[in-house]
Every structure is written in C-alpha cells, then in structure tokens.
C-alpha cells in the first residue's frame, strides 16, 4: 500500500521531499515511547494541590497510565487567570512521584526554569504556544532529559519538524512529537484535531508521535473518541487530561475526563489496539 | 461520560445549543446507512470507460463494498481539465449496475441533471463545492432519492447542518452527511481531515455521518489510516476512491487505492469495527 | 519597484507563474469598470420594497454611485431566513431603474434565473458561495452581459482566476473580479478582508478588480475604512451596501451604511483617489 | 458613522465587549508613536555588517524614516539558517546610531538578552512567533523601554490585546501594536495582511497600531501598496524592511525595498496622508 516520494509530490513539505522513516524509541525514565507499545500519559491540566495531584496520579496509574502529566507553570491567554502554582508545588510533587513511582511530564515555559525542574521531570513538555520559542528549544537541546514537543496550533508540519531540529542540533535526540489540534475557521470544537498530521509525522520522521485528545477537541464527551482514533492510526500514545472533579478544576475543566471516564477509555483503547496487534504499555 | 449542553458552551454552534441526537438510518436502495452496520462505498473518482468501471465495481464488491461510487460530471478547478464523460456514459453505467447488482452514488452538479440521472442513481451526492449551492439543494429536496451531502471544505459544522435543512424542508429526509476534509493553513496534505466534525455531527444531529478518506488526506498511502479512524470513532461508513490502475486515472489518481489496497483495508476496518462491536454491512 | 517572476517564486500560484498584466476595462451599461476611473456601486443588500429601493437608489445616485446593487434572490445560511422577494419584485425594479437611469447589479443563484433576469440586469453577480458552482459559471459564459465574480470566501486566488475561465471559455469576456473577505480563524470581524489578493489580482490578471467592503469586514463603522484602503491600493472600484434605515433591514443590516454615511464616504474616497491621481467615475 | 457596542455584537471578541478608545501616544526616544503624526520605521531585516547597516540607516533617514529597524538575533524556521550576528554586532550598531542620531527598534527573543540590549534599544520588538511567549512578555513588563508587540500570525485579535496585558500588568504602559499578516489557507502571498484587525485594534484599544507591510505580503512589488492602505485607514505608522541590495540580503530579501523604492514610497504615503489631514512625522 506504499507509494514512494517519487510518485507523490504531496509528500513534500515546502521544498523538501521527506523519506519514509522508521520510528526510533525514546527512553523516558523507565518507559519507552515509540517502541512496540502504545503509551498512555495522564494527569491533571494544572497541579492544584497535594490532594488533587495524588488522587489523580493514583487513579490514572490504577487504570493503566504509564506516565503522569501535570502543569506547574501554566500558559494562559489572560495574565489575570490562574498561572499555576509554580515552584512552591515542587516539594509535594516529589512526594506524589515517590508514592506512585511514576515519571512526570510537565511544561517548561522559560529557559530559566530548567535548572529548577531538572530533578523532578522525566520528560519536558514544550507547549503549543512555545513551539516557535527557539531560545527555549535551544536550551532544551542542552538538557539530557527527553522533550515532548507539541505542535504549535498554527504550525505547518514542516515547521514542527524543523523546530525539533533546534533541540536535536544541541545534542538532545530524545524528542517526542505531540499533535494537539490546530486553529482553523471551525469554532464548534476548541481546535481542529489534525489526524492527517499524526499519520504524516509518523510516516515521514523517525520521532515517536503521540496525540493530546483533550486540547485537540476540547469537549469532554468527545475526548475518548479522539483517543481511539489515535490508537487506530498507529500513534505511539496519548496524553490525556484527567481530574477527579472536573467541575472544580482551575483550568481546562471542560475537557478533563473523570477518573471513571478514564478507566472506561483505557479499556476501549486496549480493544482497538488489540485489533491492530499493537500492545498497550504497562508499568 | 456525558456532559450536557448546560455544562459545555462548546456544544453550541453560533447561537444554537444542539441536543444529543440518535441517528436515523437512511435507506439507499437495498442498503441502510446509519443503522447498526458500518457501510463501505467504493469506486472510481470518475467513470472513465465501461471496462474501468466494471473492473472496479466487481473488485470492490468482491472485497465487501455495498454501494458503488463514480463521477459522471466532474467539478474541476480548471475548465480545461477532464470534466467527466457526462450523459454519454449512462448506457454502459446501467449495464455495470445490472451486472453487479449494486446501487450507484454519483454527484449532481446542476439542478437540470436530476431528471436525466434519476433512473440510474441510488443516492445523489452533493459535492463539497456545491454545499452552498442552495438552488441545487432545494431541487434535491423535491427528489425521493436520498442525498449524500458533503461538507464544504470551508463550511462551519453549523452551516453544513443548515444546508441539510434546505433539503429536508423540501420534504426529503433521506440525508447522509459526509466529512471530506477542510481547507486550513496546512499544505502537506491535500485537505485537513476534521475528525472532530465527524464526532460532533454524529452526536448532535440525527443524520448518518460517513467519511471520505480519499479527499480528506489526498495521499494514497495515508487513506487507509483515515478510514480506520472513521471506524474507530463510530462513523456510519466510508466512501473510498478505488481505481484498478491509479497511475492511469483521469482524475485524483494520487489518492485512489488499488483493488489490492482496498481488499487489505476492508480486513483492517473489519478488525477495528469488531473491537468496538460495530458490524460491517454486507450485501 | 518591479520584480520579475524569475526573481520571486511567490508570484506563482500553485504551479503557474503569472505574468504582469494590464487591466482590460469592462463595459457595464453606460459605465466602464477597470478603465481610468474608480467606480462606486451601491445599494441595499436585499431589495425589500419599492419605497426602500427607490429611496436608496436616489440617495446613492445623488452621492455619486454609478451603478445600483440589490439582491432579488438571496443566499442565506438558513433555509428559514428571508430568501429575497424573487421575481415578484421585477416590475417595480424596472420602475426604479427607469426613474434613476441606473444599471442594476444583482446576484444570480440558479442557471434557470438568467432568462428571467436578462432584461433587468446591467451586470450579473456571482456570489461568494457560488464561485465554485461551475454549472452556473458555464451558463453565464453564454450570456452577453458582464459578470461580477465574487471570490469564494475560501477560494485560493488561483481558483478564483480559474473560475473566471469557466465564464470566458464560453465566450463572455466581460468579467469583473470582486474580493469580499475570506474565512480565517479570526472571528472579531465577519470575514478577513484580503487586501493582498486585491493587489495580486490587479497586478497579475487583466480583469478589473473591485472590493466589497461591507461583507469584507461586516461592521458598519469599519466599512468606510476598508473602502478607503481599496482606493489607496488602486482597486477599480467598490460595491457598498447602503440602506435608508439599516436597523430595519431584512438582511445584513449590521454592515449597511446609511445614506448619510455613504455621502461622507464618497467625499473621503474622492480625497484619497485624488492624492493618487485616480479619477472618480461620474454618471 | 458610529455604532455602539450595544448595536453590534460583532464588536465583541470572545466574551468581552470592547469600548471605543482613544489612542494614547507612546514615547520612543525623541519620537511619539500614536500621536497626531504618522511614523515610518525602516531598516534591514537583519543587521549584516557595519557597512550595510550604515548605508541603510542613512538612506532611510534621508527619505524620512524616524526610527531604525534591524535584527540582531533572528527567528528562523530552520536552526541551520542565518541566526543573526548576535551581540558581536553591538559595537558597530552604537556607532551607526550615533552617526545617524536615530533610535533602534530590534527584536528580543530571550528574556536574558534584555540586560545586554538595554543600552542600545529605543523600543523592543516582540516578534510574531513570540507573541505567546508570556515569560518574555512578563520580563518586558519590567523594562522601562517601550515595546512593539507584533501580532502572532495565528493570534486572535483578542489574544493580541490580552498579550499586551502581560506587559502592562508589569508596569510598562509603553506598548505599540503591530499587525504583520496572519496565516490563512492562501499561499499566493506569504501571509494574509489583516487590514480589518488594524481598524479594529485602532478603534477598540488605546494602543497605537502600526503595520509591517513587508511580512504582511512578502513580495517586494506589493509592499508599497500595503503601506498605502495602512495610511488610508488611519494606522499610526508602518515598519518597512529596506536593504541597499535586496538580492544579497541574508534574510527576507524578497520582501525588502531598495533605498530607491523606499524614497518613492515615502512620497506616496505623504500624498495619501495629506488627503486625510494626517501629518507625516519628521525627525
């Protein structure tokens, strides 16, 4: 079912013909992303308190998540909105990671945070709004921790791949691409999930490619469907927002799954993966 | 996993809060779209000759397609490009339909074609470029044949749903929605497949919703992945472009599957559907 | 200040390098569009009644408009919205045209309307939603009346130019392009006015290019600014929505200028044109 | 010609109704942006050498520019492309500024550059790709130098205005907005210049609003037209890329005006401004 780059000019991005590539797995703590298994990362949008973070961490672990997400510094459109707990949350974050023995994926928004965060993080996240923040990418190129690079919501696939080069040229080859929805004319959903980009990036780069279904659609009841589609097209994993009580969340509550939702979703994902002989990664 | 329209303002399109709806199946010849089964429609972009159409029809039928697609009048960006065979093809089309006992889905591009086509067609297709052609929609509202209404490549979901009302207000309730990719800033793929819209339209309207993976991504090797995603999210079917020799196709060859590709795809679709307890419709 | 197509790959649209072209004027009744003068077309969105149409026509004529616009069949997103008066308005339209001695520009939405309209129309308008309605364009190619072809709100400049070929290949060379805003992610204004497209089409085609500032921004107070920009970049004219009492308009009232607004705008346009030695066309 | 926020729901951005506002001028060195005069900023995309920068500075000053632009650290899609001279250029930049007695507008791409740049800069520029880099904006909020905030190429007008709050909440009220084109489906021009956003931001914020016609269209021959449109709609100024020999430029040569082009443009701008009683600022 293969076509070569010669037969399809559409496999070019602006100028460069991209070859078919095999995914190189990325080690994240004890976990491998992009290897034979499908990896599920889950956790709250923002880390809000010790109790909320611990409850979420234990819940998603019990349902099968292999890495924990949670925002410490948040990127918010309004300077007056909740900006995350910041470094004061670090002491209890360590406690939660120790109790659950899970690695943390968290967003870094300023090159000067890296020094502080480095002891706590299994994988750094570059958020969509910072994909073009090349100063940050260069700094992360000098880190030895892997980087999850979210696609900017208006970045061409080509620009996304080239942003990854800002990291790899610094010597850091541990890069995981994450599609999280793009901005289009459609406003019925928060963003437009670009499934094509997942397929394209998976086929034409050697980076693992995961999907953030929570931002990609932005409506809780639709999040599981997007996650299933990611499994169906051969993505390497998903990163899902989960909150014990979404209606009380300080950010993105409308798109957070409950712990119960998440448990159901894990079973559905396992079903679809199994139909495609793709194993689900376990801790 | 349900949220109500009260808790999510995102379930509004511009102004109207849309309720959760149950799909009403649409009868298309001997087939039901939007019932318990997943329906696969396949065939060439354009009907080019008796031989090409017959070979494709027999091939896709053998692999499990339940309806035949094939363009008679084509919408082409350039007035100088191949415009389809037009009415001169009708005599051999009848012959192919009789031999294969399949129903035909074909695009109508002018209200004045309906009279000519009516004896040949199981379901009319309104193409993406005609979704806003309300004169055509009104005319089809007076037909007794079902209509597959493709989403305009820049139509809001809300406009798509309202376009369907131009048909239903005329008395024709046999409407099947088809998502086929939208136009965004991304150019690496032909269009951006809007998976979110499939999920949204399925949840918030009573129309069956199918996916055209061929136009939605526009690159042969990626078409099967998009079709699998459609199956994974609970779409009611797919409509796929297939050509015995895509490299010789007079239109859209780059996105046509070969008969062999299509056969493999049908098995993969069946696998994913089965994981989700969704039966594949058989003739 | 010229660059050649050799030095700038950006002057290509997909594939074709477009040469610099000189505008060929189009005769519309007694008026020339695309000649040395800048032409102002004005009138209501919809023709609502004899009184409303006559009052608007006399008002815009007194302020300097050279052609009259007014919709008879309207393209509305909702099938339940006001669809225009249709052919029943034709008798009083003739009366207004005779009294004011102005030519009418009106939209044709169905190939079967042409026969009815032909005696009333100085120039046919193809609306944005019908730019891809090639059946309609082919029919208009056989008319001897000039055609104002609005750009589809999601049409590439290249597709707009190629749509014009559907008309010219039929033998009708009287084509005026009209930019009226495109659909983008921005929602603060109704559409995004694509000024670049005006400049591009003017430089790279031989068609006169005019601007519809009313749809392009969709907010009354901003409409005059867009019209001034059109004058500043060398467009061949503007087509402006005017209503004696916008708050009572049956369609598009939010973007209609009052007769008083329009009078002020005409003076500002004349000022900008005069700074650029571009005469304003008078009846 | 005024409509109030009550009569037009379109004057809302997502949620907030924005009031009509009067522009507050911003002092930039000896110059005022947003006062009664129209300000022209010009200079090279990148500062490439002492000779190139001096020649450009003297040229644009002679034609009437009141501030100098020039990039020291460049934001480039590819990590392998020319990244600007960086801090090694600072010594000769001082020399050029002293000779020409002009203030410098230059982009800051990393919060850690501010300390180094502060002695050289009359106004900091935040580039389009950093509009969402809130860490950088917060840092600039603590500076006493004014900030030119370019609109992200996919930022809603509302997000652009809210990004400015990240600066003003830090205590820095010297903010100048700059529209430089947005990313849309259209590819014939580099970006789509959003003239509507200029008009909207001018009417609904108190910030001065200027236009970058060079990036907004990206094609040298079309840049002057965009600049004239900015003058016609009442923008507070333009920032234009000029290079003595564009074909030798290390970045953005295709959109740079020659010194001769720029001289002609200044005269055209003065003509349009004079028709609208808007004075051109002089040094």
Condensed summary:
Chain A has 283 residues and is α/β, with parallel strands linked by helices. Chain A has nine helices and ten strands. Chain A has an eight-stranded parallel β-barrel, surrounded by four helices.
Question: What pair of chains forms the biggest interface?
Answer: A-B, 59 and 60 residues
> What about the largest sheet of chain A?
8 strands, parallel, barrel
Can you give the mean pLDDT of chain A? 92
Shape verdict of chain A: globular
CATH class of chain A: Alpha Beta
CATH topology of chain A: TIM Barrel
Domain module count of chain A? 1
Decide which structural class fits the backbone of chain A: alpha/beta
* Oligomeric state: homotetramer
Rg over C-alpha atoms of chain A, rounded to the nearest angstrom: 18 Å
The unreliable regions of chain A are: 1-10
The CATH superfamily title of chain A: Aldolase class I
**Side-by-side strand order of the widest sheet of chain A:** 3-4-5-6-7-8-9-10
Please name the CATH architecture of chain A: Alpha-Beta Barrel
**Relative helix content of chain A:** 25-40%
**Percent of residues in β-strands of chain A:** 5-15%
Pattern of helices and strands of chain A? EEEHEHEHEHEHEHEHHEH
Q: How many angstroms separate the termini of chain A? A: 34 Å
Number of strands of chain A: 10
Number of helices of chain A: 9
Notes on the structure:
4 copies of one chain form a homotetramer. With 283 residues, chain A is an alpha/beta fold. Chain A has a single domain, classed as Alpha-Beta Barrel (TIM Barrel). Helix content of chain A is 32%, strand content 14%. Chain A contains 9 helices and 10 strands. In chain A, strands 3-4-5-6-7-8-9-10 form an 8-stranded parallel β-barrel, surrounded by 4 helices. In chain A, strands 1-2 form a two-stranded antiparallel sheet. In chain A, strand 4, helix 2 and strand 5 form a beta-alpha-beta unit. The first copy, chain A, is globular. The two termini of chain A are 34 Å apart. The N terminus of chain A is likely disordered.
């Amino acid at each position: 079912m293969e076509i070569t780059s010669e037969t399809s000019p559409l496999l070019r991005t602006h100028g460069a013909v991209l070859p078919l590539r095999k995914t190189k797995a990325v080690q994240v703590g004890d976990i491998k992303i992009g290897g034979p298994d499908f990896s599920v990362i889950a956790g709250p949008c923002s880390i809000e308190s010790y109790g909320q973070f611990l409850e979420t961490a234990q819940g998603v672990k019990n349902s099968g998540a292999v890495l924990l997400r949670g925002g410490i510094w948040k990127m918010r459109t309004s300077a007056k909105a909740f900006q995350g707990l910041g470094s004061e949350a670090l002491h209890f974050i360590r406690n939660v990671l120790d109790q659950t023995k899970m690695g943390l994926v968290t967003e870094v928004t300023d090159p000067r945070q890296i020094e502080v965060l480095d002891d706590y993080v299994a994988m750094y996240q570059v958020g969509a709004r910072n994909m073009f923040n090349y100063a940050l990418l260069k700094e992360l190129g000098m880190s030895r921790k892997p980087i999850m690079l979210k696609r900017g919501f208006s970045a061409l696939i080509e620009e996304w791949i080239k942003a990854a080069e800002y990291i790899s040229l610094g010597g850091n080859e541990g890069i995981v691409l994450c599609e999280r929805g793009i901005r289009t004319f459609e406003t019925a959903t928060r963003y437009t999930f670009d499934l094509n980009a997942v397929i394209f990036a998976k086929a034409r780069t050697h980076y693992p490619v995961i999907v953030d279904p929570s931002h990609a659609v932005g409506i809780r009841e639709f999040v599981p469907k997007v996650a299933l589609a990611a499994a169906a097209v051969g993505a390497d994993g998903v990163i899902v927002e989960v909150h014990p009580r979404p209606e009380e969340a300080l950010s993105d509550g409308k798109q957070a799954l409950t712990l119960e939702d998440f448990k159901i979703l894990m079973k559905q994902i396992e079903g679809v993966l199994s139909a495609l002989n793709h194993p689900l990664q376990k801790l």
